[in-house]
């Protein structure tokens, strides 16, 4: 349950333009689609995918770190890590199970004999879009558990794209189609409140001191 008094206290510190911008961005955020990247060794690629998620309105990014531990490259992400939720998994199976339990179908973005072209993809179902490396692609475990396969139409000699480029193309196409549809794709009222609180905290310097002051002045909020 969101402490609305605490939210109001924090947002009172922000400028009106900042608060209006939060609402504008949140109105275009979605969890109808989520993105997952598997063991991407090049840190800048994961960071670039996060940036694409933020730019095109995907609220959650799932990172599987089964082989390579990594941190977000802030220079590439350019602040996107403040606005996108990162779910980290130590194994493929944990990620697959978690997403399926939340109602997502697993979509492997890779050329496959049963694949679907991007423009023909059915956007009505909540989908988790999995991306692997350009060289190795997705692991057999993901391929075997995928509910569908999606690929970008290509007409040149090159058969693959860098993961960050592929993600940007697919996310931009699907989110644009989603916003033009009648699908209930937006965040819930509760999710919007949660993000307003999270983003307000991320926007305020010395938030720990300010938070401590609030709870000192409002001890009942701790109950």
Helix content: 40-55%
Helix and strand composition category: alpha/beta
Instruction: Determine Rg (CA atoms, Å).
Output: 19 Å
Walk across the major sheet and give the strand order: 3-2-1-6-4-7-5
Number of helices: 9
Shape: elongated
Task: Pick out the low-confidence regions.
Answer: none
Question: Would you tell me the overall average pLDDT?
Answer: 88
Number of strands: 7
Distance between the termini: 12 Å
What is the fold's blueprint, element by element?
Blueprint: H1 4-11, H2 16-26, E1 33-38, H3 43-56, E2 60-64, H4 74-77, E3 85-89, H5 92-101, E4 105-109, E5 116-117, E6 127-131, H6 140-145, E7 148-151, H7 163-179, H8 189-203, H9 207-217
Parallel strand pairs: 1-2, 1-6, 2-3, 4-6, 4-7, 5-7
Explain the overall architecture:
- With 223 residues, the chain is an alpha/beta fold.
- The chain is built from nine helices and seven strands, in the order H-H-E-H-E-H-E-H-E-E-E-H-E-H-H-H.
- A seven-stranded parallel beta sheet has the order 3-2-1-6-4-7-5, sandwiched between helices.
- Helix 4 links the parallel strand 2 and strand 3.
- The radius of gyration is 19 Å and the shape is elongated.
Task: Describe this structure in a few short sentences.
By secondary structure, this protein is α/β, with parallel strands linked by helices. It has helices at about 5-10, 15-25, 45-55, 75, 90-100, 140-145, 165-180, 190-205, 205-215, and strands spanning about 35-40, 60-65, 85-90, 105-110, 115, 125-130, 150.
């Amino acid at each position: 349950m969101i402490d609305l008094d605490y939210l109001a206290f924090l947002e009172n510190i922000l400028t009106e333009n900042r608060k209006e911008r939060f609402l504008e961005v949140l109105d275009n955020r979605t969890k109808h689609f989520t993105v997952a990247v598997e063991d991407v060794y090049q840190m800048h690629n994961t960071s670039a995918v996060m940036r694409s998620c933020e730019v095109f309105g995907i609220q959650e990014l799932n990172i599987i770190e089964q082989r390579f531990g990594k941190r977000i490259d802030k220079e590439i992400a350019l602040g996107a890590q403040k606005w996108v939720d990162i779910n980290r998994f130590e194994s493929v199976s944990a990620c697959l199970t978690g997403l399926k339990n939340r109602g997502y179908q697993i979509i492997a973005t890779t050329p496959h004999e049963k694949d679907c072209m991007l423009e023909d993809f059915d956007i009505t179902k909540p989908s988790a879009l999995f991306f692997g490396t350009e060289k190795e692609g997705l692991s057999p475990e993901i391929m075997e558990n995928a509910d569908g396969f999606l690929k970008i139409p290509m007409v040149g000699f090159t058969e693959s794209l860098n993961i960050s480029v592929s993600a940007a193309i697919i996310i931009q196409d699907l989110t644009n189609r989603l916003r033009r549809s009648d699908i209930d794709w937006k965040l819930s009222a509760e999710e919007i409140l949660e993000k307003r609180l999270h983003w307000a905290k991320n926007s305020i310097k010395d938030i720990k001191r300010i938070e401590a002051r609030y709870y000192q002045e409002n001890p009942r909020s701790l109950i």
